[in-house]
Amino acid sequence: MIDLTGLxxxxxxxWVVNEMDMKPFRAVQIFGWIHGRRExxxxxxxxxxxxxxxxxxxxxxxxxxxxxxxxxSADGTTKYAFMLDDGEVIESVLIPDRPRLTACxxxxxxxxxxxxxxxxxxxxxxxxxxxxxxxxxxxxxxDISGDRISNVVFMxxxxxxxxxxxxxxxLSIISDERGICIGARKITxxxxxLPGGVDRLLATGRQYGLAVSLHSAVPETRRRLVPVSVSLPxxxxxxxxxxxxxxxxRRVTLEYCLISGVNDSPEEAEALIRFAAxxxxxxxxLPYNPVEGLNLERPSRETVExxxxxxxxxxxxxxxxxxxxxxxxxxxxxxxLRGGVRSLPRSD
Length: 348
Ligand code: SF4
Known about the structure:
- The protein has 348 residues and is α/β, with parallel strands linked by helices.
- The protein has two domains: 2-61, Orthogonal Bundle (DNA polymerase, domain 1); 66-328, Alpha-Beta Barrel (TIM Barrel), CATH 3.20.20.70.
- Helices cover 33% and strands 20% of the residues.
- The chain contains eleven helices and 14 strands.
- It has a ten-stranded mixed β-sheet with strand order 3-4-5-6-9-10-11-12-13-14. Strands 1-2 form a two-stranded parallel ribbon. The chain has a two-stranded antiparallel ribbon with strand order 7-8.
- The longest helix is centred in the middle third of the chain and has 15 residues, at 131-145.
- The two termini are 26 Å apart.
- Residues 337-348 have low confidence and may be disordered.
- Iron/sulfur cluster (SF4) is lined by residues 111, 113-115, 118, 120-121, 157-159, 192, 213.
């Protein structure tokens, strides 16, 4: 049975015409029910004839993940643990920051990149999420919270560019005006800079935001923090970012997880300034969120201020991101703390 949650509008129209032998306009109705009203029962799609509803129900499903845990932080951030059909558990986060409500989505169960400060990376790679599984996280959080989600970031578990076909489907679906309609400019895709990733994002022809997990502009330090960067020269990454600036006309966000004694020195700040020169960018500093089992420390407030002081006023924009949801391990780098989250028994 096909899960229609994961079909873009064009794919759905093709399926409706070719497989269901229905008129193309039915795709508009069905897409609206699935993605606008987030209906999961074909029987409730009341402007579609009963015969057609039955036909749809016999050929397709509209799945939602099973919610296994919802944890709310003192700062309002909520972390959701969702179980997928094969027992994999993934995590997604809802971050209120009025007037915005941002959903942080996972794209893989585990991750191949193994960044040294990230719990998800440590748990290893298990599989890619399908387009339907990526989209369904958003709809599940929207329906459980009851609040309108305004923004989406692909910064949860996994490297989006390592599963780009399915991520591209999700981008198309959630920005489609016939569905939940979250504008491309309100959606950000994060990457460590895998080769070809930026080009593929640009090929969508949409103005999606781009965030790069830089963490250091000193090659040896970056290799230590982001091991896959051994095959990702900073010069090539910069070319990609310049191309993004030029083609999209938007600045790129440089994510920088500040770790005590690792990448918080004046030399690291200088390298960051040099790397950023010529780009349209914003630097987002994230003081490291401690992860049990990792021998890394959060920098002191003074160190963060000193590092920020090196960057000002030589950088276009620098923000120090408030850590959200750290008390429920929902902050950056902390997802996957359920202990290698794999195949929890369904009875849990
Ligand atoms: S930081 Fe992102 S890319 Fe790196 S291991 Fe964690 S999930 Fe993967």
